[in-house]
Amino acid sequence: MKKIVIIGAGIAGLSTGCYAQMNNFQSEIYEMHSNPGGVCTSWKRGDYLFDHCLHWVIGSNRGTSLYPIFKELGIADSIDFFYTDKFRVISVNGQSMTVYTDINKFEAELLHLFPEEKKGIKKYINLVKKYTKFNPPMDGDFGNFGITGFIKLLPFMPSFMRLKRITVEEYLNNLFNNNVLKEILYRIFPVKKLPALMAVMPLSFMHREEAGYPLGGSLNFAQKIERKYTELGGKVHYKCRVKKIIIRNSCAIGIELDNGNFIPADIVISACDGRTTLFEMLEGKYLTKKIKRFYRKPHLWPPILSISLGIKRDFSSMSEIKDFKLNEPILVNGKEIWWSGFFHYCHDSHFAPKGKSVLQTQIETDYFYWKQLYEKDRDRYYYEKERVLKIYIRILEDIFPGIKDDIEVTDVATPVTWERYTGNWQGSYEGWMPTIETFGVTLPKKLPGLRHFYMTGQWVFPGGGVPMCMAQGKNLIQQIVKERKR
Ligand SMILES: Cc1cc2nc3c(=O)[nH]c(=O)nc-3n(C[C@H](O)[C@H](O)[C@H](O)COP(=O)(O)OP(=O)(O)OC[C@H]3O[C@@H](n4cnc5c(N)ncnc54)[C@H](O)[C@@H]3O)c2cc1C
Q1: Same domain, 387 and 464
Q2: Contacts of 307 (CB under 8 A, 6+ apart)
Q3: Fewer Cβ in 10 A, N or C end of the chain?
């Protein structure tokens, strides 16, 4: 029986391991952390569970092309998904808009608030409605649908190609004149440089109830796949950092751990950070032009500062996500941050005792700022985290008077925290950001001049996301099985 060694017990590594076991390989995963999940994680603080990761998971519902993977990995039968009717409430200068997941209700809300934009609203909503019938096979790399996918895609082809080539910002600017409306819509799709498809498809997924929140949180989600993996006979070795991939005669023959131990393998699969794999574990010896281009000028998801609060107050009557524009910006490293908000987890009883709540927010920030503070001035690093936390609490105090006295536990994670705990380059939590240049482009899973080695996970395709990482595991094992004619 061929032995596969997998580096990383994130969602991609665990999924790859499950499919390896299902296909009669013997596999082992080596993970540097003490838990599975990688960035898909949660952690306990006192009575509260904190979690910055999963808010919605595409494919969670029966009928989607991803659903068989949810079934095969044991998620469909072990996790309940929560489908909200209000995706978020967004406020600018006292004007609030509810983004309903039902597209007809959202249309009515837009028309009610911005009647003068009727023409653009109709055009936009009609497109989202059209995309509610868009159901291409999503089990490949996102945006790379293969021939069957493209046949299914034919009726959508003109709009799909157009929306793939322009940014969210360009698309919304062409449709609307009202700046408040545009500002509100940008909050739904906060990265303006994403392809305009991202201004359409998420709303259609929400409408079809295909993107649920997994009750129990992110770590629980990962643990369910880990359980499946061990039931299938796989083994995860925790607290084992991989230092090197060992090569002999152009073949990967195993890995070397930090403690110097050599673990032999017939096939090595890296499901961890792409840069560490290519430039450290493989010493930059096996690169293609495309890989060099991606790493030379990286377009990564913007790093984030995440703040979590455990509060003895009940927020369950409010919509789960609220975003509001501030009257005064928060300054971090001289950069003005104009938006704040929160996600409360009251719909999930795992997060706080009855009558209490977890509030969590994410602020876009600069990785290098936090990195240099962490390395050169650790006191300032902690001081700065504390400073931003205090500002955030002050903002909440204006909205919910007295809240400061109800806060029982706090936690602040910077991009350096993400990097330290998961190894992801520059703290990028989802790897490459899809842009109009890179949407649907994949990076090689096999490297030139190196046999018996593969890469998978969020660093081999722009976009990231749990369902796609689960699908990556399946695709890769199918590819290996085919190559070996098993
Ligand atoms: C804040 C945030 C919000 C998100 N929201 C969503 C969402 O709502 N919906 C959604 O679908 N997706 C979401 N994602 C994205 C999704 O969680 C990720 O794309 C996905 O989990 C990545 O999985 P992965 O296995 O490829 O990588 P990782 O999770 O990075 O796993 C890699 C693993 O490798 C390990 N590792 C690294 N280096 C080594 C080494 N040298 N030796 C051994 N082990 C090593 C790490 O510890 C880690 O466990 C979010 C992510 C974040 C962070």
Answers
A1: no
A2: 360, 361, 362, 363, 388, 389, 392, 410, 411, 412
A3: N
Cβ of residue 458 lying under 6 Å from some atom of ligand 1 = yes
Which residue minimizes the CA distance to atom 34 of ligand 1? 8
Q: Is the dihedral of CA 328, 332, 334, 336 positive or negative?
A: negative
Percent of the chain with pLDDT over 90: 87
Q: Distance, CA 29 to ligand 1 centroid (Å)? A: 15
CA-466 nearest atom, ligand 1: 11
Quick one: 310 and 292 in the same domain? no
199-202-203 Cα angle (round to 5): 85
Q: Where are the alpha helices (DSSP H) in 23-98?
A: 67-72
Ligand 1 contact, 39 CB (< 6 A): yes
pTM of the model: 0.96
Across 379-469, the runs of DSSP E, i.e. the strands, are 407-413, 453-455
Please give the average per-residue pLDDT across 77-90, as a whole number. 94
Instruction: Judge contact between 118 and 111, C-beta under 8 A.
Output: yes
Range 212-232 average pLDDT: 98
Distance CA 317, CA 90 (A): 16
Residue 336 lies in a domain: yes
Q: Which domain holds residue 176?
A: 105-204
Domain shared by 110 and 199, yes or no: yes
User: Which residue intervals of 141-268 are DSSP H helices?
Assistant: 146-153, 157-165, 168-175, 179-188, 201-207, 217-231
Check residue 453 and give its pLDDT. Answer: 98
Q: Are residues 311 and 289 in the same domain?
A: no
What is the best residue among 16, 39, 243, 360 to mutate for testing ligand 1's pocket, by most ligand atoms within 8 Å of CB? 39
**Ligand 1: which atom is nearest the Cα of residue 458?**
26
What confidence score (pLDDT) does residue 140 get?
59
Predicted confidence (pLDDT) per residue in 229-251, tens digit: 999 999 999 999 999 999 999 99
**Terminal CA-CA length for the chain:** 11
Kindly give the distance from the C-alpha atom of residue 298 to the centroid of ligand 1, in angstroms, as a whole number: 18
Ligand 1 centre distance from Cα of residue 180 (Å): 35
Q: How many domains does the chain have?
A: 3
